[in-house]
Amino acid sequence: MIAENSSLPKFELSDANGSVVKSSDLKGKKCVIYFYPRDFTPGCTIEADEFSKDYKKFQKAGIEIVGISKDDVESHKKFCDKMKIPYVLLADTKTTVSKLFGVWGKKKFMGREYMGISRSTFLVNENGKIFKVFEKVKAKGHSKEVLEAYSSVK
């Protein structure tokens, strides 16, 4: 997994509208990049909903939010429409970016092993440095936790 104080890796992925978003588009901005397993699953729905409810607070603080999962553009579009998600969701269908950040790997659920994305969040400053990493994120309350982490940075 990418460590704190690392530079934001270079990437480009399509958003829910099919537009290409590049990591360089985030240059000079504070941003939250969160990885989540799948659209429409219980934990991911809670996490997306909480970030959506707090979106105005993030905007006021000058912080962009970017969600990334393995789901395709069409799934993201449906998820954004249903959940009224106001921020960008990126489709990492080939898991290239997930692997780059170190969040793609073996997971276990009910005794079954499979490959998937570990729910993780990376906080990036205006200089493109990752200053905080949240591993094994609990969806409930995470948005507030992220806002607090940004407010504690001078």
From TrEMBL:
- Record has Disulfide bond as a keyword: yes
Q: Name one Pfam family in it.
A: AhpC-TSA
Q: Where is the Thioredoxin domain?
A: 2-154
Q: Where exactly are the transmembrane stretches of this chain? A: none
Q: Which GO terms describe its biological process?
A: cell redox homeostasis; cellular response to oxidative stress
Q: Name one GO cellular component term.
A: cytoplasm
User: Known catalysed reaction(s)?
Assistant: a hydroperoxide + [thioredoxin]-dithiol = an alcohol + [thioredoxin]-disulfide + H2O
Q: Does this UniProt record's set of keywords contain Transcription regulation?
A: no
EC annotation? 1.11.1.24
Instruction: Enumerate the GO terms in the molecular function aspect.
Output: thioredoxin peroxidase activity
Q: Which UniProt keywords apply?
A: Antioxidant, Disulfide bond, Oxidoreductase, Peroxidase, Redox-active center
What's the family? Belongs to the peroxiredoxin family. BCP/PrxQ subfamily.
Question: Which PANTHER family does the entry link to?
Answer: AHPC_TSA FAMILY PROTEIN, THIOREDOXIN-DEPENDENT PEROXIDE REDUCTASE
On assembly, the entry states: Monomer.
Protein name (database record): thioredoxin-dependent peroxiredoxin
Q: Which organism encodes this protein?
A: Marine Group I thaumarchaeote
